[in-house]
Amino acid sequence: MLPDLKLRHMGMFVWDIDKMSQFYQEVLGFCVTDKGFVRDHHVVFLSRDPKAHHQLVMETGRPPGSGTGYGLQQISFQVGALNDLRVMHEMVSARDDVTLIQTVDHGNSWSMYFRDPEVNRIEIYLDTPWHVEQPYLDTLDLALSDEVIHQVTEQRLKDNPSRKPMQQWQHEMSARINLP
Fold first, then answer.
1. What is the tens place of the pLDDT at every residue in 90-110?
2. HEC string for the chain
């Protein structure tokens, strides 16, 4: 049975990350939640929702040219449990039209990425109880029990100075974006 998938954020490739980030802040009211460097590209995470680390992620590396498909970086769906992530992993792994399946511990989420038949990047993820500055990438072994996955992530994050309970981060984000 297919888990409940909730569309939660989109990613886009951009040419000028500073200009685009500023535009989305000034025109649409987004706040920058994190910035960093991953896969040889600069990234910026933006949100208007204190319960969402990001609703939009921008990444440099947009290819030259224009037209449909040049800006999509990823489409992300949230699930409610680690077992939902396992079900989706099993489902896509059984297909011959899905490529580049990868499981990742982001510290603030456990994620699975894959490419659809036209090579669009899809992310299925579940939030963890912690916030940690992004980008953060570590391995995720879905063969482990829920309890062990929680312990592994918590252990990895224990000395990370940006680590905090997710509820604390959400409260701080509410204040930053002026929400009650």
1. 999 998 988 899 999 999 999
2. CCCCCEEEEEEEEECCHHHHHHHHHHHHCCEEEEEEEECCEEEEEEECCCCCCCCEEEEECCCCCCCCCCCEEEEEEECCCHHHHHHHHHHHHCCCCCEEEEEEECCCEEEEEEECCCCCEEEEEEECCEECCCCCCEECCCCCCHHHHHHHHHHHHCCCCCCEEHHHHHHHHHHHCCCC
